[in-house]
Amino acid sequence: MPVTEGLFDFLKKKKKEAPKSKDKKGNEPIGVDYDGNYIYAEAAVNPSLARKADRLDKTQAMKMLKTALGSKAATQQSDFVIDLLNGLSLKDAAKQRLKMKIRKDLK
Predict the structure, then answer these.
(1) Scanning 1, 20, 52, 62, which has its CA 20 to 30 A from the CA of 78?
(2) What is the pLDDT of residues 56-76, one digit of tens each?
(3) Which positions ≥6 away from 33 have C-beta within 8 Å?
(4) Residue 18 belongs to what H/E stretch?
């Protein structure tokens, strides 16, 4: 069976078909992911999680980890980060969102 439309055409069509209703938090959908789920605009980071992240960054272990990673090869750095993320047991939607955010925001 021949393919009549590409992935980007499919996603554009899905985005046009997406209702312009807001989610429970009042965010409007900005697109559709590969599975047909709506993607919403960035929500504010939970203040509790932000405080925990700040505390984690200040720990001696995190400082040592950053120093150790800085001297490693790029493949080792990326493998470590992927293993770290896989160890967090994130939901599939969170993994998909991470992929999108990394493609968009990684500097």
Answers:
(1) 52
(2) 888 999 899 889 989 999 999
(3) 39, 96, 100
(4) none
| Whole-Å CA distances, 55 to 2, 40, 46, 61, 62 | 54, 28, 14, 11, 10
Q: How much is the pTM?
A: 0.49
Angstrom distance (rounded) from CA 81 to CA 69: 10
How confident is the model over 7-44, as pLDDT tens digits? 666 666 666 665 555 555 566 666 666 666 766 666 66
State which amino acid sits at residue 58.
Answer: K
CA distance 27 to 21: 9
Number of CB atoms found within 10 A of residue 28's CB? 13
